[in-house]
Amino acid sequence: MAAITTELLLRAYRTGLFPMAEHRNDDEVFWVDPRRRGVLPLGGFRISRSLAKRLKKNDYTVTLNHAFPQTIGACAERHETWISHDIHNLYCALFEQGHAHSIEVWRDGALIGGVYGVTVGGAFCGESMFSRQRDGSKIALAWLVDLLNRTGFSLFDTQFLTPHLASLGAIEITRADYGKRLEAVRDDSADILSAPLASNGHDVVQRNTHTS
After folding, report:
1. pLDDT tens-digit series, residues 58-69
2. Taking the CB of residue 60, how many other CB atoms lie within 10 A of it?
């Protein structure tokens, strides 16, 4: 792991690779290039009626980059995790350099959900998300998609397709297709910090045309 630098990691992302570890205490990582890749079309995020109702409530707050180490730490709070201590530290270093970002959801001062990832030009490479209360990660994703749509992004990489992500509109594409999409946007000048977060959840729902 000592040989992996943030520079090497960013170069890997530009070619479609990302690192994983076997377990939390693993001191080695392996590079992953899925044969089938999960992506979330930024114009196709699905907000169900129940999620829309939850988003419109004023009982939570959302922040950007306010608690990156806590967010990645919460994502690793599982019996089985690929986020080793070394990977945690590496992504925190990416965050300090401005290449990694997190969306955090709070309720009553407690962190209840979040998502983090790496930006590569016009691509946001989602790494992991978590929920400590119902719909915590869905709220984070909805606010993130809204922000990406307003800051010049055109590709949201979810790495793998899960039933949870599929229910929100994610699809699966081939490795070759992902490579073409990434190559087309990896030198774009998208900037996640170029616009503020939504003022409220109602605006997030209103800007999304795929409420069902």
Report:
1. 899 999 999 999
2. 18
